[in-house]
Hints:
This protein is α/β, with parallel strands linked by helices. It is 36% helix and 24% strand.
Amino acid sequence: MSVKLLLYAGGMHREYHSWHSPHLGRSMEMLLIGRGGTRVLVFPTRAGRFYDYENWGLIASLKDKIDNGWLQFCCLDSIDAESFYCDWCPPRDRIARHKQYEDYVLREVIPFTEEKNPGSALIAHGCSMGAYHAVNLAMRHPRLFCRVIAFSGRYDLTRGAGSFRDLFDGYYDEDVYFHNPSHFVPNIDEPELLDKLRRMQVTIAIGEHDSFFENNLQFRDVLHSKGIQPEFHVWTGEAHKARYWREMAASFF
């Protein structure tokens, strides 16, 4: 059962929602910001919270587009601490918990946003680990999305990069394969699925000194090999912080 609190900050329409998720077996929270327009599903950074995107000023950087009714943001909570970053869990349990999170998004969150804003298009979006979630979901279910916008993302969770480790500790199975875009996208050959992916707008931004820069180049080349033409933007420096993401959001939405 959803609990709703209407709030208005600077004239912006803002709703808080929480309900017990049957797919996750726990309560989940979210913010819905804006009255209408294209829905934007925002995944938080690693183990982040539903309020981070707003607290870091990214909503403020897009206020005019929200107030004009062009964009509506649904800012989600994370369960990364129970899945990919649950170090005490066996790797098999990590990917199983992530699959439950995907079911929560697909079967609870997206239908909820459709009910709130029927007939609108849907964008998947996130920064850092949130970019992974956005790209993974959009590549797996392109019929649902018109666009994916990813900042400072990581698209292969099985390889370490800089201080970031392999999130499965060497474990690999079919589910790990199908939830790593760098792995499964190169092997997509179904014409209908490829057509949907090619019609979806893909925007990727990454800092030139980001630990995930090489993975982003590899993933860009994978997309090109499948006839998918992403907008690929390289930012100066590492650019893996909220102040850079505010600039990216203002530039690419």
